[in-house]
């Protein structure tokens, strides 16, 4: 049985927007560590939030399961989701001491694992949450989220604020934890330095669809990706090439009528905002 299984998944945020996910079908084995690669807006965060049950799918035929259980109708235990929005929550930016915060969320019940994470993430229990940096607040989030054993871990850009040493220690911890307990990780990130030895699979998303489904990593001579890459290619270079291809593809679509990004050099009539600011520009 797959640890994560998604079939026939299409998702729209509202009735007026194009789909954020289109016909997604993936299956991840237990113990796998999959890196999601894709440009901003490719659908990575939406997919992770759906797997965590944070958004509801109403499309007929969509099937989203973790450990064989429907994430919307039979919520599976052992699923942990860690995303970037946590650190902006006013509750965790208040004047509360880290030791009291961790106790308030049950840290006293998981002392051994909590203390291991406190050492690994280099956290001062006397920090006040409103007085620390974003990176330090992110460390507290990771301790809070990881101190309870998980079967499936969904990570959305949560290492972006960490310094390189703490990030490296964290990735080694997660890899060992996954291997020891057969736990599954699905990780969306834009930081690929030091990540080459972490995943068992990589996947590529573009415009809400998987252009490359989860594929074993590192590459082997018989990998389906060897038509594009040498087996010795690093994860960083794979990601760089995929993202360049995505950008080229989007620019071709723009030539065919898709809304363009970047400067609007063909406009001869000033915009309303430009007209206004020119009229009241007192800088000269």
UniProtKB/TrEMBL annotation:
PROSITE patterns: ABC_TRANSPORTER_2. InterPro entries: AAA+_ATPase (IPR003593), ABC_transporter-like_ATP-bd (IPR003439), P-loop_NTPase (IPR027417). Gene3D superfamilies: P-loop containing nucleotide triphosphate hydrolases. CDD domains: ABC_ATPase. Keywords: ATP-binding, Nucleotide-binding. Residues 253-268, 275-284 have a biased composition (Basic and acidic residues). SUPFAM superfamilies: P-loop containing nucleoside triphosphate hydrolases. Pfam families: ABC_tran. The keyword Lyase does not apply. Residues 4-232 form the ABC transporter domain. GO terms for molecular function: ATP binding; ATP hydrolysis activity. It comes from the Eukaryota. Residues 253-284 are annotated as: Disordered. PANTHER family: SKFA PEPTIDE EXPORT ATP-BINDING PROTEIN SKFE. This is ABC transporter domain-containing protein. It comes from Cyclocybe aegerita.
